[in-house]
Amino acid sequence: MTVKIRRVGTSDVLTVPKSIKKRYKEYEVYQDRSGAIVYMPKRSNPFKNSEFVAKHLYDGDDTGFIDGGVRDDELLH
User: Fold this and answer.
1) Which of 4, 14, 52, 65 is 20 to 30 A from residue 77's alpha carbon, by CA?
2) Torsion of CA 62, 67, 71, 74, to 10 degrees
3) pLDDT reading at 77 higher than 80
């Protein structure tokens, strides 16, 4: 399937074919080094959400963590 860029007002527009289901209302658009244009669904960044950050801050409790120590014979001398 091929689409062409067309001018609408002062913007260039790529038409989304009917065969592509529109799952999201907003997309982020990027262009890579080779010129490929990529549309990614716009999602919120959880690290900018203060509730998410507060809930996931490390509280200093190591309970449940596996001891990942290194034996002396594993060290490079």
Assistant:
1) 65
2) -100
3) no
